[in-house]
Amino acid sequence: MDKASAIIHLSSSLSRELSHLRFSFEGVVCNPLEYAWDNYRRFLELSVRDGQKIFFAGMNPGPYGMMQTGVPFGEIDAVKEYLGITGSVGKPERESPFKPVEGMNTRHHEVSGKKFWAMAAAIGDRDTFFSYAAVLSYCPLCFIEGRRNVTPEELPREDREALYSVCDRYFREILDILSIPTSVALGHFAEKCLVRAGAGKIIYFPHPSPRNPASMKFWDTGEAKRRTEELIFGEVKP
User: Fold this and answer.
1) What is d(CA 172, CA 188) in angstroms, rounded to the nearest whole number?
2) b/e sequence 168-190, b meaning 16+ C-beta within 10 Å
3) Which of 185, 188, 190 is nearest to 203 (CA)?
4) Of 43, 93, 123, 228, which residue is the least packed, with the fewest Cβ within 10 Å?
């Protein structure tokens, strides 16, 4: 079984196991691996390859990104135009009236996904970028409370413990399958996840989220591209 097929199989198992968790969190929990599986599977088929040098580790879906499209950092324009993923997306069993799942028809744009894939596109086209780098998130679930996106760290303690117990185990297996020497943590949460999973060399990048205004300079000035090229090529490309 090749790497992509192994991670597809693992992701399907992860989704099923997470579906059995019962949270005390009273908001909405969405799992795009259920209702947007075709897009996620296609993303894995495209993005998991032999010989990759770096692994970008994200946190969990954003309400205007992966929750809509099923693709990590799934800003709608990047998913359609850069990644070329255009599959259909269904509906979760329960959704937020304030942040509904509109799928590939969403009119919202995710800032973090826009910045991440713009950096990737500055390095090369889709196939060029994925020949060097893999991109996956630690947790596939999105948590919405009212109009607010809730991060896994903000969940009640018993929910965090149950979630981390499942996701940590699968994350370690994913790292073993990828066998990529360098992991790039996109934010401190991902960094903690990589440490718990026993990742080897871990590099920290600030998460490209509008909730972290201090990170915008890193992504907007080309510093993210420069650092990524150093990790891939050992130097900045001319």
Assistant:
1) 18
2) bebbebbbebbebebbbbbbebb
3) 185
4) 93
Q: Is pLDDT at 4 greater than 90 in this prediction?
A: yes
Q: What is the pLDDT of residues 23-59, one digit of tens each?
A: 999 999 999 999 999 999 999 999 999 999 999 999 9
- Residue 238 falls inside a structural domain: no
CB 49 within 8 A of CB 130: yes
Q: Please check whether residue 135 lies inside any domain of the structure.
A: yes
Strands 182-186 and 54-58: parallel
Domain span at residue 151 reads 3-233
Cβ–Cβ < 8 Å for 98, 84: no
Contact indicator for 108, 76 with CB cutoff of 8 Å: yes
Q: What is the pTM of this model?
A: 0.95
* Residue 102 CA, distance from chain mean position: 19
- Is 71 a domain residue? yes
| Domain CATH code at residue 206 | 3.40.470.10
Tally of domains within the chain: 1
Question: Exposed (0-12), middle (13-18) or buried (19+): which is 231, by Cβ within 10 Å?
Answer: middle
